[in-house]
């Protein structure tokens, strides 16, 4: 991890993630959820809190510290980061129980819509970085019968070789390591990019303070974020990881799955190459 004057702060990443969430996320409307269901879920959540207080004999100073911490997470705009690291994987796993095709994983806080559209054979726009390892990622988007899906989109976003995402770190140009790749007539694509680095939850904000106070580590293994869409099919949000990568077995966001691990091989020129195919089930009527 390089530390420079440009190192993004938790405040920067958090505030940007909050702004992005408000602007783009399909933020759920509570009015769509019947009162009995709201009551049942919130009662269960509160019961978990009450049980933890009893089980661990929580004190008044600890209760007040928790309130202060919750306020700091809000003031720092870190709720999207916190929720996506510590809660989203459980929602994803629940939803996945009724899905087939390629395994999904969490969206995370750093997706940005409306990125540059790229042809099926393309290079992701990125800043020059002499320390970055070139990576070529190719594959095919298919339906569950094995037919290639031409004109599907493979949206990809990733950190750079220092673990930073464009749009959430001021020193990176807009659109860095982001793109919407359109598959060819057979559903194939070939994306030239760079090897991403492991990602560290910002350590200078309240989420980082909690991680440190609990004696945990703040790392996610290196990953590519992918969102695959094809007309008439269920979109797949997932992440691809790297065999042998650091933190693969202890992802702070608990978002790895054995089916989502790439094993790129050096082609003899210093470029690593890997293949991954996506299988999309039909959209539910
Ligand atoms: C977070 C960041 C990620 O890059 C990711 O994939 C998941 C979560 C986060 O900081 O919350
Ligand atoms: Fe990520």
Question: Would you write up a description of this structure?
Answer:
It is globular and about 60 Å long. The protein has six helices and 14 strands. The chain has a single domain, classed as Protocatechuate 3,4-Dioxygenase, subunit A. The strands form three sheets. A six-stranded mixed β-sheet has the order 1-5-4-9-10-11, with no helix packed on it. Strands 2, 3, 6, 12, 13 and 14 form a six-stranded mixed β-sheet that branches. With 285 residues, the chain is of the alpha/beta class. It starts with 9 loop residues before the first helix and ends in a 5-residue tail after the last strand. The protein binds 3,4-dihydroxybenzoic acid (DHB) and fe (iii) ion.
Which ligands appear in the coordinates?
A: 3,4-dihydroxybenzoic acid, fe (iii) ion
For the record, the count of structural domains works out to 1
Gyration radius, rounded: 20 Å
Tell the overall outline.
globular
Report the structural category.
alpha/beta
Number of helices: 6
Largest sheet: 6 strands, mixed
SSE string: HHHHHEEEEEEEHEEEEEEE
Q: Looking at this structure, what is the CATH superfamily? A: Aromatic compound dioxygenase
What is the top-level CATH class? Answer: Mainly Beta
Helix content estimate:
25-40%
């Amino acid at each position: 991890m390089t530390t420079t004057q440009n190192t993004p702060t938790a405040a920067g990443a958090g505030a940007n993630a909050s702004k992005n969430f408000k602007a783009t996320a399909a933020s759920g409307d509570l009015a769509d959820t019947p009162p009995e269901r709201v009551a049942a879920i919130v009662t269960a959540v509160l019961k978990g809190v009450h049980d933890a207080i009893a089980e661990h004999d929580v004190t008044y100073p600890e209760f007040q510290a928790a309130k202060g911490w919750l306020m700091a997470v809000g003031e720092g705009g870190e709720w999207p980061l916190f929720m996506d690291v510590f809660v989203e994987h459980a929602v994803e796993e629940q939803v996945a129980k009724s899905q087939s095709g390629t395994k999904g994983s969490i969206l995370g806080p750093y997706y940005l819509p409306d990125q540059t559209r790229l042809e099926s054979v393309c290079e992701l726009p990125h800043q020059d970085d002499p320390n970055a390892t070139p990576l070529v990622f190719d594959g095919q988007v298919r339906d569950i019968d094995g037919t290639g899906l031409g004109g599907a989109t493979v949206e990809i976003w990733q950190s750079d070789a220092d673990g930073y995402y464009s749009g959430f770190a001021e020193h990176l140009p807009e659109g860095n390591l982001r793109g919407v790749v359109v598959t060819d007539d057979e559903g194939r694509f070939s994306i030239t990019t760079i090897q991403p680095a492991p990602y560290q939850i910002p350590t200078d904000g309240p989420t980082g303070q909690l991680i440190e106070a609990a004696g945990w580590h703040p790392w996610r293994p290196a990953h590519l974020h992918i969102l695959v869409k094809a007309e008439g099919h269920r979109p797949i949000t997932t992440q691809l990881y790297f065999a042998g990568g650091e933190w693969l077995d202890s992802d702070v966001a608990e978002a790895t799955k054995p089916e989502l691990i790439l094993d790129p091989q050096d082609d003899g020129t210093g470029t690593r190459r890997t293949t991954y195919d996506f299988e999309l089930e039909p959209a539910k009527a």
